[in-house]
Here is the input.
Amino acid sequence: MDLPRGKNYDVSLLVGDPHEIRLVRGDITQYPADAIVNAANSELLPGGGVCGAIHRAGGPLIADECRRIRSERGSLPAGQAVATTAGRLEAKYVIHAVGPVWQGGDHGEAEMLASCYRESMCIADELKLHSIAFPAISTGIFGYPVEQAAWIAIPLLIESLRVAKNLVFVSLVLFDKTMLDVFATAAIAQRKPASGDPYEVRIGIMND
Ligand code: AR6
Here is the structure.
């Protein structure tokens, strides 16, 4: 299965009926979903990258709630997540997930990254949401190699979506074409896993 590399496209992973995971290129602050996941830091402070963009677009209510959570429960370790208001964003919630800082791969980074995705899915499902959108957590300022991150995120999201009670639609919103290509390649490569159920992959060509 080849990717239409010269064109803008999205990819749907049909993992159950009606459960679907969509890989798309875009700006997550503009993306329609019940919850948007923030690639946060342990102090829940507005930082750079996607975190800065979410705080800017959502307004000060998000940082106010983050401050309150931090003062109540302290800083959030890597691998954990917490929900706040989405302020002015279209989403109902922002789920702040703290990804691991890449330190070479033998400091538990893979398990912490998987845990971020798993926790965010659990929180959204418990909030009875139908849709959630993720950025590629840890792959920017925190330095996680993109291909390795994709091989963790995709199976984890599939597994979490298949057991979810309320969530039916998960999006991975990738900021640029190269990231989309890497995630799409990983998703296609895993569609007939050695263990676990296969899923159908559909590629849609988009008009730019
Ligand atoms: N929409 C979607 N993806 C985006 C956007 C956007 N608007 N902006 C950036 N990305 P990063 P991290 C992609 O650095 O590596 C912050 O300061 C980006 O291309 O935002 O988890 C936090 O406060 C990359 O692929 O998050 C933390 O301190 C991905 O989002 C720290 O950075 C994640 O990049 C977290 O670092």
Summary: The pocket of AR6 is lined by residues 27-29, 39-41, 47-51, 53, 99, 135-142, 173, 175, 179 (CB under 6 Å). The domain at 9-205 is CATH 3.40.220.10 (Leucine Aminopeptidase, subunit E; domain 1).
